[in-house]
Design a protein that fits this description.
about 130 residues, disordered N terminus, five-stranded antiparallel beta sheet, globular, about 35% helix, alpha+beta, 4 helices
């Protein structure tokens, strides 16, 4: 699988594993998120220096990350400076991004880390093994 072509269905499945009624149509993007859609909305996850995870939405992840680093982003990241972007998820529109953001924010810290590792681990293995 390519790094920019992953489904986010695992966050939106119901108890029997089927996609729920409000499952998004967006794709995961780790590196080249701007190449997916010119005016996409993204849900992004930052790991902060203290090990906490911040989740937000924006249209330009790189610019928003820079704001957080400068202390001009969200109130949370002013007191918990980010160390790096964990991942970004492309969504069809702001509404979808907001819904996904709320779903992620309701997860425990460990569930967030598990979600990130499920999204990125196979990609790293694929890129190494060819």
């Amino acid at each position: 699988m390519a790094l920019t072509d992953h489904r986010m269905d695992d966050l939106w499945q119901d108890s029997d594993g089927a996609p729920g009624p409000d499952a998004p149509t967006g794709h995961l993007s780790i590196y080249s998120h701007e190449a997916i859609l010119p005016m996409s909305w993204f849900v992004y996850m930052l790991e902060c220096r203290d090990g906490s995870i911040y989740t937000g939405i924006c249209v330009d992840v790189a610019a928003r990350y820079a704001q957080h680093v400068r202390g001009k982003g969200a109130r949370y990241t002013r007191s918990h400076p980010p160390s790096h972007v964990l991942l970004s998820l492309a969504c069809a529109d702001r509404s979808e991004a907001t819904r996904l953001e709320m779903r992620i924010k309701r997860l425990s810290a460990q569930a967030k880390r598990d979600f990130v590792s499920r999204q990125t681990a196979p990609d790293i293995l694929d890129s190494v093994t060819g």
